[in-house]
Structures are given as C-alpha cells and as structure tokens.
Specification:
single chain; Hepatocyte Growth Factor; Mannose-Binding Protein A, Chain A; 2 domains; 7-stranded antiparallel sheet; 7-stranded mixed sheet; 5 helices
C-alpha cells in the first residue's frame, strides 16, 4: 500500500512523499507577486489551469522528471512548471498572486544533487577544474564532502553514471599508503582492494581521482593538479 503524505509547515516549505520519492518545495519570498524574465519562461515545461492549491501544483511537478521549480498563482489558479531553478531568476514586472517555489527532489538534503535509492547516495559531479583543497572546500560549502566510495555497489553505480559524462578525471575522497585506503577523517576504508589494485604508482602525499578514460582506475595524484570533482551530501533516509 502506498501512503501519500503532505506537510505544509509555517515557514513556507512543502513536503510530499510517495514510494521512495520525496520532493521538497521552498517558497522564494523575493519573487512573490512578480513576473520572471523571459529566459526563465523559455524553460517552461507546461502549464495547468484551475489548480486550486500549492500542493496540487507540487504534485504536477513531482510527476515531471525535469521539473526543478514551479509557479502557482492563487488568483488565476495557474500552475507553471520549469526545467530550471528560479531561485536566482530576475523579476520582470508585477503580477499579483504569483508565488514561486524551488524544489528538492528525492532523498537529498541539498538542491541539485542526484539521489540513488539502491545505494542511498546523494551526489553531484562538478566539471569545474580545481585542486584537491578547493574541491574539498566547494563540497563543504554545500554542507557535504568529497564523495566517499564505500562499497562495490556505489562504485558500480558511479561507473555507469559517469560513463556518459564529458569529464574524465574527478577528485574523490581518500588516499592510500599502498596497503590501505584512508578516508579524509583518518579512518581506514573497508573498500580497499579495488583502490589499492587500481591506484597505480603510490604517492605518499597524493589524493585519489577517478580516471575514466584510463578504465575507471583510481589514481593517486598530486593534490595541486586540476580536476573535476564529485561531492556527496546527506540523504534524508537512514543508511
């Protein structure tokens, strides 16, 4: 049996859960009673008339995979879905009754992250090239960390997902002493064999990257080298 939950809190956030899929909507107060610039409306996924509430508009967004934000007008009862986040969109004129919401889909505690239910993983690839320290800081700015590959299931999933990505090299968490994989908090990872076998030449000061074009090897490289990176944030579901 599937139980449908709907919670509207006093701070303007809406939560809707349905069978392993969760969507949060947070109202963008600065855009209330405004119209958006035409660039945002170019990303319109569809419109629905006679929508009586925010929660119904939210349900429409939940059923569209690419929906990242929506507009609902309490006067006209028009619901409009967008394939981009409108959180940083510029207002363009006045339209009474308009309300805008950014959404956070699935089980991640940070907007824009990819949720995989099988591994309970919330992650995101970043194409901007940075050294290890700056990549780590970028993840921490999202209240996360560099991605920790802690199981063969996560590793298999990532290889499938990254196979189509344009980037080839990504920072991940950890280093190796040639015998063990050591994560950033100093603990010894249980997922050692794959990395130790594929890490290549051991640099005692190196940090791990995934090298896609080299056959998805883990490589221990100079932390000042410039690479893409993978961040991980907390899931909403217990591990």
């Amino acid at each position: 049996m599937c139980i449908l939950l709907l919670v509207v809190s006093i701070d303007g956030e809406v939560e809707k859960g349905r069978a392993y899929r969760v969507l949060y909507a947070s109202e963008i107060e600065d855009l209330k009673n405004t119209n958006l610039s035409t660039e945002a409306f170019d990303q319109n996924l569809g419109e629905f008339k006679h929508v009586r509430s925010v929660s119904i508009c939210l349900a429409q967004c939940l059923d569209v995979p690419n929906c990242l934000s929506f507009q609902w007008n309490k006067i006209t009862m028009l619901c409009r879905l967008f394939s981009i986040s409108v959180a940083e969109a510029l207002p363009h004129g006045i339209q009474n009754g308009n309300r805008y919401f950014s959404v956070l889909k699935d089980g991640c505690r940070k907007y824009g992250y990819i949720f995989n239910h099988d591994t309970n993983l919330c992650w995101k690839p970043f194409s901007s090239k940075r050294n290890y320290s700056n990549a780590l800081q970028a993840c921490q700015n999202d209240r996360g960390r560099l991605l920790r590959i802690s199981s063969i299931q996560i590793w298999d999933y990532l290889r499938t997902e990254l196979a189509e990505h344009s980037m080839s090299l990504f920072w991940i968490q950890g280093t190796t002493n040639g015998t063990h994989v050591i994560t950033d908090d100093g603990t010894v990872s249980e997922f050692m064999s794959q990395a130790a076998e594929e890490a290549g030449e051991m640099d005692p000061y190196g940090r791990f990257i995934i090298a896609k074009q080299q056959g998805f090897f883990w490589m221990n490289v100079n932390p000042e080298s410039q690479n893409g990176f993978l961040c991980q944030v907390a899931s909403k579901f217990p591990s």
